């Protein structure tokens, strides 16, 4: 498999997918979503493959939506809603795929990147990991991330992360179950984990993920609501301006507001 | 704003509300509920105000219902249900108000006081904080508190606190997410927190609280159930007697029961 | 009360039930389910009894289903579904009984044994406790355990325990609220706890358990789904073979698979 935004490596019973858009802050664009989905197609066609490991660049796992691409789009672009719906579909697919999705975190995860973490079956991280939901600073909300994040870390922690936009350390993330295992040696931890996971039969993984899905449904109404709400927020002129300004000169919304207020 | 049960202080983008009924153990009566609601009206009318800080007396944040007032009431007083419904409405309003409600805890929080904490957006506390649900000792239950408390700390911790009536320390409260931040310097922590919160635009706070409300609905049926159940419990002769005895001579229900058993 | 699988001891306001099938790894069979239910009948008839303590052998609290008995059964035995439904009913009864069910853990709890822990009102353990959901190794799932376990420890921790089949220590179990109190002296902790619990009136315990049930319903559809799914899994020839092999010579499923693969 040859990708533009991913580096894929095979090992016995394992597929490793490294998000690689270093010149775009490892942000999420339409190509990344499509290629992640294609890579999953491949893994699911293989009877032999048990686990898909998702990782980023050292130091930077994944930021959210690609603001440069977003700012370049015409207003009310129908492709935008399609892109968001594709992202939501990908997160849901993580939770239903008959492959075990293990997220490997060794750096920053921001905004939309948090969805990939929250929807993964298991999350391993080093102490270098750092997590933040920065959306509210831009007048946005992590609409698609939250159903999966609340399921993983509970209502209050997801709420506090969204409202304060404060980043949390790997240690804090472990305490609130955002991270399942904190390790100093990701490869060794992954080796031990996959040894255990490989004891399970293929059918059992499918059965397990299907049954858990019934116990905590993220239902179609909620998915639709998430896509609608983020589309609504992102199309507001105020928010579009925030994003456009940042794409041009890296200025944060409050810096502009403060500058205006001081005039 | 001039209140009987509250001391209100304004600061830039901030309204501080200190519950002040020191001669009644900072307990909750109808006046306090009405005045908290009026203070919120004022905050919500101000475009400039971002955050409302709710606090108590040093050492004693808030106990539950005012038992003296309750004991003085005629049986089956329709005002009682109205009072409880008003309390439930206030808690729900905390979660929906376009202002950020920060609870400041530097002392004991007991029974109904726990509702004010649980329904707040964020909770800061010092190590002096102490939390307990004592209702079951009186034959009551924290009916209105629980929907908000379960949302915040999960089912089991809310269950164990209700059943054992044991008080928990600030450190334990942090571990179960009843407290969001434990600090030795509340003013400094509040300053840092509001600096962050002030980066958010007014509309974003509204959008955020509205969206989260849809992800974890405390629905009208549950609110009605809560008010009905606490009204039913509080009107039982056994429970009324427990409260009346305590109002007269400070005797706890089990002390009376033991005395009767020993005769 | 005289039981085959339980040792029952009375103390003031207390009934202690010790699971005692030492020659069958303290596993769960139809007799144990019936006798636990009968013991609860007795406790519920007594106005004086407040608390039922459930415990196991030192070192081994409870493993899951008795595989020897299961392997000896004819295929598609209707008694099997009845047995599972009885187990599910017993767990639900723990959460609704007007007696307080305290689980005492001083050893291993595996698979179906986890349901008894998860459905208990309160769980006390020593550092000797160890918890695991091993079902997936056999091609099974902890279908009946999960609704109660998710309620107690949240979705992600229940998910990770099921998927990794890894056992967790008493300290970890405390951190995720599977254990309510970790103690070095179970008898002393139990004494202090029951002193507090005995302050509650009989009616209050009933009211409390009924009200909490309404706040987090494990509804009949979910109960039915759980029984159907575990029945379906357990009747698959592949899974029956796994269990039969283990019953004969203690071989784990993956050992057989590896042996076949090496031929």
- Biggest interchain interface, per-side counts: A-B, 29 and 26 residues
Task: Give the number of DSSP strands of chain A.
Answer: 10
Which overall shape of chain A is indicated by the principal axes computed on the Cα atoms? globular
Question: Which ranges of chain A are low-confidence, i.e. pLDDT below 50, for 5 or more consecutive residues?
Answer: none
**Approximately what portion of the residues of chain A adopt beta-strand conformation?**
15-25%
Q: What's the tally of helices of chain A? A: 12
Q: Biggest sheet of chain A: strands side by side, in what order?
A: 1-2-3-5-7-10
Oligomer: homotrimer
Question: What is the N-to-C succession of helices and strands of chain A?
Answer: EEHEEHHEEHEEHHEHEHHHHH
CATH topology (level 3) name of chain A: 2-enoyl-CoA Hydratase, Chain A, domain 1
For the sheet with most strands of chain A, the description reads: 6 strands, mixed
The top-level CATH class of chain A is Alpha Beta
Class derived from helix and strand content of chain A: alpha/beta
N-C termini distance of chain A? 55 Å
Rg over alpha carbons of chain A: 18 Å
| CATH homologous superfamily descriptor of chain A | 2-enoyl-CoA Hydratase, Chain A, domain 1
Mean pLDDT of chain A: 93
């Amino acid at each position: 498999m040859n990708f533009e935004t991913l580096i894929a490596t095979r090992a016995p019973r394992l597929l490793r997918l490294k998000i690689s858009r270093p010149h775009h802050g490892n942000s999420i664009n339409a190509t990344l979503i499509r290629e992640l989905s294609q890579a999953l197609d491949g893994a699911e066609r293989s009877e032999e493959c048990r686990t898909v490991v998702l990782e980023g660049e050292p130091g930077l796992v994944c930021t959210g939506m690609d603001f440069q691409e977003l700012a370049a789009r015409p207003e009310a672009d129908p492709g935008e809603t399609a892109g968001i719906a594709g992202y939501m579909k990908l997160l849901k697919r993580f939770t239903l795929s008959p492959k075990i999705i293990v997220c490997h975190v060794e750096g920053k995860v921001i905004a939309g990147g948090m969805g990939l973490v929250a929807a993964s079956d298991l999350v391993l991280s080093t102490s270098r990991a750092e997590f933040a939901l920065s959306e509210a600073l831009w007048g946005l909300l992590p609409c698609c991330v939250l159903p999966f994040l609340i399921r993983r870390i509970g209502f209050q922690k997801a709420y506090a992360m969204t409202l304060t936009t404060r980043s949390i350390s790997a240690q804090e993330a472990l305490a609130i179950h955002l991270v399942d295992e904190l390790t100093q040696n990701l490869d060794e931890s992954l080796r031990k984990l996959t040894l255990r996971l490989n004891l399970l039969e293929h059918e059992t993984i499918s059965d397990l993920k299907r049954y858990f899905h019934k116990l905590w449904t993220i239902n179609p109404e909620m998915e639709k609501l998430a896509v609608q709400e983020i589309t609504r927020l992102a199309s507001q002129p105020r928010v579009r301006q925030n994003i456009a300004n940042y794409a041009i000169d890296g200025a944060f919304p409050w810096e502009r507001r403060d500058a205006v207020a001081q005039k």
